[in-house]
Amino acid sequence: MIIDIIIYLLGILTMIIIIQAILSWLVAFNVINTYNDFVRQFLYALDRITEPLYKPVRKILPDFGALDLSPLVVLILIQIIERVLRGVQSGSPLI
Description:
This is YggT family protein. Keywords: Membrane, Transmembrane, Transmembrane helix. InterPro entries: CCB3/YggT. The chain is mostly helical and about 100 residues long. The protein has one domain (about 1-90). About 75% of the residues lie in helices and about 0% in strands. Helix 1 (about 1-30) packs across helix 2 (about 35-60) and helix 2 packs across helix 3. The longest helix has 27 residues, at about 1-30. The radius of gyration is 16 Å and the shape is globular.
């Protein structure tokens, strides 16, 4: 039961990271107007949610300039955690 809740929350976190990454691309290519108050607040909220996850990964990864791979690394880590939890839940080996 608790593992199901954790897996569900990890799924929500995955969607938040994907939405934040796509929106950051749209802002970088000037598709989204950041002068709009709602858009700016929404982007700020997403940044506040995801930044604590990205910060430790950014300390480890080398600097790639404008290319930020930390969302990809965090998504891979989330997938690994989900697999481990599903293995624990089913009682089978972890992989």
